[in-house]
Amino acid sequence: MITVLFADDHEMVRIGVSAYLSAQPDIEVIAEADDGEAAIGMALEHRPDIILMDLVMERMDGIEATKQIITQWPEAKIIIVTSFLDDEKVYPALEAGATSYMLKTSKAEEIAKAIRSTYEGQSILEPEVTGKIMTKMRSPHVEDLHDQLTGREKEILLLMAEGKTNQEISEQLFIALKTVKVHVSNILGKLEVSDRTQAVIYAFKHNLVN
């Protein structure tokens, strides 16, 4: 059985999620906490396999609770389950030691799956969180990378952001398809990204497009 501590200040959320998890053949909710301070005490007392941690709670939030639990028990596996996806919540939670980050909009079965995966040593992150981390962890000179692009490359990057294919870009700019492919390859290299999607994310992140 995978033992779980669930910390959340909304009683109905705790009741609903705990009931679903406890109905699983391999998961058992052994304790519940309604704030960060209680979560710390229960985590150190019960040493559950997984801790589900809400972020916004009274007396002490989930970030501080996570930090204190990890400080006293480095092996703890904590899954953040929250409604917040803003930077001031995501990064501090992960830096505090959280293993996975899920949104409360996730289905109950997705949370159960995350519990099993985290228990097996994986880190489960919402796609939006992964995108934020990719952007944050890029090299220090990332802000200046797009300055290396030529005028034509910037023009093509904007069309890529509009969802244009290489063929459509070729037809719109009246240049050979082979030339477009060379420009796209140069764009990826200069922005230090591996594919078109990351290039488009970069463009939006740095306000190169609306």
Overall description:
The protein has helices spanning 11-22, 36-46, 62-72, 87-96, 108-119, 127-136, 151-161, 166-173, 177-191, 196-205; strands at 2-7, 27-33, 50-53, 78-82, 100-103. 52% of the residues lie in helices and 12% in strands. With 210 residues, it is an alpha/beta fold. The protein is built from ten helices and five strands. α3 (62-72) links the parallel β3 (50-53) and β4 (78-82). The protein folds into two domains: 2-135, Rossmann fold; 138-205, Orthogonal Bundle (Arc Repressor Mutant, subunit A), CATH 1.10.10.10. α3 runs parallel beside α4 (87-96) and α8 (166-173) crosses α9 (177-191). It has a five-stranded parallel β-sheet with strand order 2-1-3-4-5, with helices on both faces. Keywords: DNA-binding, Phosphoprotein, Transcription, Transcription regulation. One of its GO terms (biological process) is regulation of DNA-templated transcription.
